[in-house]
Design brief:
This protein is α/β, with parallel strands linked by helices. The protein has helices spanning about 30-40, 50-65, 75-90, 105-120, 130-140, 150-155, and strands spanning about 5, 15, 20, 25, 50, 65-75, 95-100, 125-130, 145. Helix 5 (about 130-140) links the parallel strand 8 and strand 9. It is globular.
């Protein structure tokens, strides 16, 4: 049974959608993203939408008693604030915390730390991601690793 679940944000919880110079884009270079967040602050995600099937999966886990966390890489405090605002507006009261890390390599250690702190076995933790290498790393570490595409297949 999953007791702790950790969800990536960009491409997993939310479908990226940004307006840049009058055009809709689904992403940008790291440098352009930093500038975009600096300019738009906590409103950087205002046009992004939750991914419906992932939102259903979030609700299912929550209804089965799991504690849920957003675990996302971030490059600035402006991006952190934007991620927190997106989650508050679209998943109010659902997630325990929005945790941001500077790189994907920090995600599994964060999960281990929270699991240890809460007395939850790694086998009862799940990482939901759109980065397949992280999903595999979670599985190798003894957790449940779920690629976002698996949610689409299992709920349809």
């Amino acid at each position: 049974m999953i007791r702790l679940a950790f969800f990536d944000m960009d491409g997993t919880l939310c479908a990226p959608r940004f307006y840049v110079n009058g055009k809709t884009v689904g992403g940008m270079s790291d440098e352009a993203w930093l500038a975009f967040c600096a300019k738009n602050g906590e409103d950087s995600y205002r046009f992004c939408k939750p991914v419906p099937l992932v939102a259903e999966y979030v609700e299912e886990l929550k209804n089965h008693g799991a504690k849920l966390y957003v675990l996302s890489s971030s490059n600035s405090e402006a991006e952190n604030a934007a991620k927190r605002k997106f989650v508050a507006q679209n998943f109010a009261g659902v997630f325990e915390e929005v945790i941001t890390v500077s790189g994907d390599a920090e995600k599994l250690p964060v999960i281990r730390k929270i699991a240890e702190k809460t007395g939850v076995k790694l086998e009862d933790c799940e990482l939901v991601e759109d980065t397949y290498s992280l999903v595999l790393q979670a599985i190798v570490a003894g957790m449940k690793g779920t690629h976002v595409s698996h949610i689409y297949c299992s709920l349809n």
